[in-house]
């Protein structure tokens, strides 16, 4: 059977309208740095009769750091605890006012599998406050947020803290299956003879460890390899990917220098200095980026270390309440959380196209159009993945053949898109990114004068998420 990507190659011409517009606007950062702020618009609210308004009171994150740096000697719950403490310090919310805590994580530390509970206890929350952990790959904290939304909407809670954490500096490395089986059997052996007999069966290959990889279990393909195939299918060049990555780093550096990344809270690392900012923001040059070799498909691939997100340590936390509760406690919310959707596709050929499907569905669900959105915050796993999604969103053919729409929804205008950088530059602790996207959208709406933000992300397994964030009346 001919693959979906082969169909795309045959049906999406290189000289598409999207490509022409991108060429005219340029993916380089220069025009973006000079873009005027979006002017406030008068739009109808998405509030629904008889449905609770759920608001974001505040959101924070500890600095996102490249793995193997300042957080290398910590455990995941240490990072999550720091984010929770940062949220408590920022909001002064009474700990006993929090009804529930939900955290997302992807690569679990076996000693703290329910990292939400361990982090909550470490941060000083009552042992009477329930907490649980969710996992949904790169949209794990998105799932934590919407789980909290559901609890509040159902009337089970009024105040929920959601978040996500990832520590790529210390990931579980297992013994081989043969060694694990032998060790478990050895633990049950009762006599010295039985133990010696088992030990004598151990062979050198038993000692080979099982190293984790960012691969799809169902396809055994790395996400980077899939991104390379996706970029080729949508005819995204190496230069375009490098240009987009350069844009991400430059905008992130500008946002950092101008103090726009107010969600970042300092973290005093035990035995080390206080970390105050992300350390992966490194604007380079097209010339330097062009010297890097392909990272996955060698020697002709286009995905490199420079146009991919890097392995990151970090944690985030966000305070959710019903609007009524927030106002009663004296808080001025930042934003409403409105409709959201989750989607799933073929994990082989559509692994990274979740934002296209989710964006189309959430716009249809809310009755909004691309023109109604003032701030887009999309997760940047790879530059090629982002550009492929933008191209797919702007394709009638793709909309009709895969999304199930009569026509395209259109690509987001770049002047509204990830204006303060993204995962390529800020970093991507898998389960912590969703909270960053939501709070950044809220902050951008206030700063830039918009009303609606759209958050979207892809995830392993061919899944995706999108949510509408509405600015709280100022």
From TrEMBL:
Instruction: Name its GO BP terms in alphabetical order.
Output: fatty acid beta-oxidation
Q: List, alphabetically, the Gene3D superfamilies matched.
A: 3.40.47.10
An MF annotation (GO) of this entry: acetyl-CoA C-myristoyltransferase activity
Which PROSITE patterns does the entry link to?
A: THIOLASE_1 (PS00098), THIOLASE_2 (PS00737), THIOLASE_3 (PS00099)
Cite the Thiolase N-terminal domain residue spans from the record. Answer: 54-324
The record lists the catalysed reaction(s) as: decanoyl-CoA + acetyl-CoA = 3-oxododecanoyl-CoA + CoA; octanoyl-CoA + acetyl-CoA = 3-oxodecanoyl-CoA + CoA; hexanoyl-CoA + acetyl-CoA = 3-oxooctanoyl-CoA + CoA; butanoyl-CoA + acetyl-CoA = 3-oxohexanoyl-CoA + CoA
This protein's record includes keyword Thylakoid: no
Subcellular location per UniProt equals:
Endoplasmic reticulum; Mitochondrion inner membrane; Mitochondrion outer membrane
Q: Which UniProt keywords apply?
A: Acetylation, Acyltransferase, Endoplasmic reticulum, Fatty acid metabolism, Lipid metabolism, Membrane, Mitochondrion, Mitochondrion inner membrane, Mitochondrion outer membrane, Transferase, Transit peptide
Q: What is its main location?
A: endoplasmic reticulum
Q: What is its EC number?
A: 2.3.1.155, 2.3.1.16
SUPFAM superfamilies for the chain: Thiolase-like (SSF53901)
Source organism superkingdom = Eukaryota
Q: List the pathway annotation.
A: Lipid metabolism; fatty acid beta-oxidation
Q: Which GO terms describe its cellular component?
A: endoplasmic reticulum; mitochondrial fatty acid beta-oxidation multienzyme complex; mitochondrial inner membrane; mitochondrial outer membrane
Protein family membership: Belongs to the thiolase-like superfamily. Thiolase family.
User: PANTHER family, alphabetically?
Assistant: ACETYL-COA C-ACYLTRANSFERASE, TRIFUNCTIONAL ENZYME SUBUNIT BETA, MITOCHONDRIAL
How this chain assembles, per its entry, is: Heterotetramer of 2 alpha/HADHA and 2 beta/HADHB subunits; forms the mitochondrial trifunctional enzyme. Also purified as higher order heterooligomers including a 4 alpha/HADHA and 4 beta/HADHB heterooligomer which physiological significance remains unclear. The mitochondrial trifunctional enzyme interacts with MTLN. Interacts with RSAD2/viperin.
What the protein does comes down to: Mitochondrial trifunctional enzyme catalyzes the last three of the four reactions of the mitochondrial beta-oxidation pathway. The mitochondrial beta-oxidation pathway is the major energy-producing process in tissues and is performed through four consecutive reactions breaking down fatty acids into acetyl-CoA. Among the enzymes involved in this pathway, the trifunctional enzyme exhibits specificity for long-chain fatty acids.
NCBIfam families under this entry? AcCoA-C-Actrans (TIGR01930)
Protein's UniProt name: Trifunctional enzyme subunit beta, mitochondrial
Q: Which organism is it from?
A: Struthio camelus australis
| Organism phylogeny | Eukaryota, Metazoa, Chordata, Craniata, Vertebrata
